[in-house]
Amino acid sequence: MSVVCGVECVLCLGCSRWAWKRCTHVGSDDSETWPSATPDEFEPVPRLCRLILAVYESDLRNPQSPPDGGYRVNPDWVLKHADYEQTQGRSPPYLIFADHERKEIVMAIRGLNLVKDSDYKVLLDNRLGMQMFDGGYVHHGLLKSAVWLLNEESETLKSVWEETGREYELIIGGHSLGSGVAALMAVVLVNHRDKLGGIPRNKIRCYALAPARCMSLNLAVKYADVIHSIVLQDDFLPRTATPLEDIFKSIFCLPCLIFLVCLRDTFIPEGRKLKDPRRLYAPGRMYHIVKRKFCRCGRFPPEVRTAIPVDGRFEHIVLSCNATSDHGIIWIERESEKALGIMRENKSETITVPPKIQKLERLQTIEKEQKDALQKAVSLNIPHAVPADGEPIEIEETETVAAGTDNGGAKRTNWDDLVEKLFKRSDSGKLLLNKESHTP
Q1: Which residue(s) pair with 36 in the sheet?
Q2: What range does the domain containing 401 cover?
Q3: Exposed, middle or buried by CB within 10 Å (0-12, 13-18, 19+), for 223?
Q4: Does residue 195 share a domain with residue 138?
Q5: Fewer Cβ within 10 Å of end Cβ, the chain: N or C?
Q6: What SS3 state is found at 285?
Q7: Distance from CA of residue 424 to its chain's centroid?
Q8: Which element (helix H / strand E) includes 300?
Q9: pLDDT single digits (tens) 232-268
Q10: Do 223 and 320 belong together in one domain?
Q11: Alpha helical stretches, state H, 192-269
């Protein structure tokens, strides 16, 4: 009898401890040790939010639901505004904008439309470990959508970049579903910069707002200098490793699903998560906007923390009534605008050295952070992780593909073929990396 009572006590204590840890875990805990972001690196985020919101408008000259202060977009600089009819369900609607004031070429991709079957088809076109790419795994449907967009618009992006004197930066931004498409589009572009006129890597940037988990951890760290993910406080999507297709199959019972996933993931050891190469993560460098604190009523002035986390990368769902509302692009735009204003005020009050020196020091810090993250990934034995000085995988090109850019670009580049060149099929039909296929 005493043994049974002892077992019951241990079980009750264990359950109580679990319940306490889960119920007291708040969104700000995920970035508690991260340093603050600077206004220079965070400045594009509110602008990208407004451009993504502009995709929802049918006529930017007569907007129906503009954010506070308007979209601040010159309609004459919009190069293309594609809706669902033009994308044919292959990708979410998008907008291409040439910002001549800031010397940027921007592609903004909207998020999931709950009433469009085509968006669900993109999400459901995947299963765990289905698509291997560039030394890791990615979401199959999102990669297909990204490649389709490149087939449609890469020539436009290339011609605009060349016409503007090869000085403009190429920025790709997306929200929710669009964030996964944008991130994978950036990865493909970085590996084939010559197909875009030889654009330098440091001129390609991607901003994933409320990012979907779309790539392996080694890829998320590898491309942290290009991809920037922005998470608002308790947003559920970057935190759940449950496949996107399962989330949206259960969209009408989302609170129940979030709770069950939270319960399940609590009992999965961290080491097991890290060593699963098929597990997908939010991409790139993380920017966490924090506006609420534990056991505090109301909202606080938002602050932005940033890092390139390896272990503990938004692994725990927050049991919060704001887990779904923090996913909204409207709230991300408002809070990021407030946070940027606060950062600028603080900077003007505390600046003691010339801004150019500060910017140079910050760039050096960012480079060191990524090298440290790459080394940590190797030390944790994360599958396919490479050290900071590791050589990237070279992509072999056939004469047919190379001819797509010869003779003044007479033949359009086929991005499906370029992506396929990263793989080689084994005798069983399994996709292997070229690098791995030569291993006996």
Answers
A1: 305
A2: 393-440
A3: buried
A4: yes
A5: C
A6: strand
A7: 27
A8: none
A9: 999 988 987 765 555 555 554 555 555 555 555 655 6
A10: yes
A11: 217-222, 244-249, 254-266
